[in-house]
TrEMBL record:
This is ABC transporter ATP-binding protein. The chain holds residues 1 to 235 of 310 of the full protein. One of its GO terms (molecular function) is ATP binding. Keywords: ATP-binding, Nucleotide-binding, Transport. The lineage of its organism: Bacteria, Pseudomonadati, Pseudomonadota, Alphaproteobacteria, Sphingomonadales. Residues 5-234 form the ABC transporter domain.
Length: 235
């Protein structure tokens, strides 16, 4: 089957001269959960930014479901939902309204039934009229996911979805991400946590200093290295 996301020779040199990506090749399969592991500064956020059109690549090509990002940025972006690292959202907004608004940003028709379905799938329906600022940290994260799903993308990027959250909330997020995959969304998440990749991913990629140094089926990787060695080897 054709990959849903195809990245070839992706390079990014910032104006400072720093080479954040040095020729990354990566194909993402439709329906998989792909975990991209890497230390601080490895290039994870730059890679996501390039795919989402937030960072202008200095080399290489990106195709989202056959759509070239450079030729049709909007067309490619419409297929992608992005959950950023920071909890940046309008805290004074109400939950359902902010999701409907995000949908509108992509030129999608107002469709209360879609918003309802998304909120229900994230157990946010009871909170639909709540102000975001009144929600717990876990619920705020769910709102960010709901916003990212508002325009019904095929691919969901989660940039360090559980950075700085407690163990219970991390498990909660993992369960939710698993449910989204069961609904057919292809998921790419970046993480510093090997446990997160172990728990969630079908395949694991490791990026370091702007280079993808390994891509492997999770089962094969853990089978080959054993859990402890994998942890030592990857982090
Ligand atoms: P983290 O896990 O800390 O979020 P990361 O793997 O997401 O790190 P990036 O944020 O992609 O890494 O950064 C990759 C490298 O590019 C880092 O060395 C970073 O300092 C550098 N970098 C990122 N953004 C810029 C920028 N706008 N200008 C110059 N250098 C940048």
């Amino acid at each position: 089957m054709k990959p849903i996301l195809s990245i070839k020779g992706l390079a990014k040199t910032y104006a400072s001269g720093h080479q954040a990506l040095k020729g990354v090749d990566l194909d993402i399969r439709r329906g998989e959960i792909f975990a991209l592991l890497g230390p601080n500064g490895a290039g994870k956020t730059t890679l996501i930014g390039a795919v989402c059109g937030l960072v202008r690549a200095t080399g290489g090509t990106i195709e989202v479901d056959g759509v070239d990002v450079r030729a049709d940025w909007r067309g490619a972006r419409a297929r992608i939902g992005l959950v950023p690292q920071e909890l940046a959202t309008d805290m004074f907004e109400h939950v359902a309204h902010t999701v409907a608004f995000s949908r509108g940003l992509f030129g999608k028709p107002k469709d209360p039934a879609v918003v309802e379905r998304i909120l229900k799938s994230l157990s946010l329906w009871d909170k639909r009229d709540a102000k975001i600022m009144a929600l717990s940290g876990g619920m705020k994260r769910r709102v960010l996911i709901a916003k990212a799903l508002a325009h019904e993308p095929d691919i969901l990027f989660l940039d360090e979805p559980t950075a700085g959250v407690d163990v219970e909330l991390r498990r909660d997020m993992w369960e939710m991400i698993g449910k989204l995959r069961d609904q057919g969304v292809t998921i790419i998440l970046t993480t510093h946590y090997i446990e997160e990749a172990e728990e969630m991913a079908d395949r694991i990629g490791v990026i370091d200093k702007g280079q993808l140094i390994l891509v492997e089926e999770k089962a094969e990787l853990l089978g080959r290295l054993g859990k402890q060695e994998a942890i030592v080897g990857l982090t």
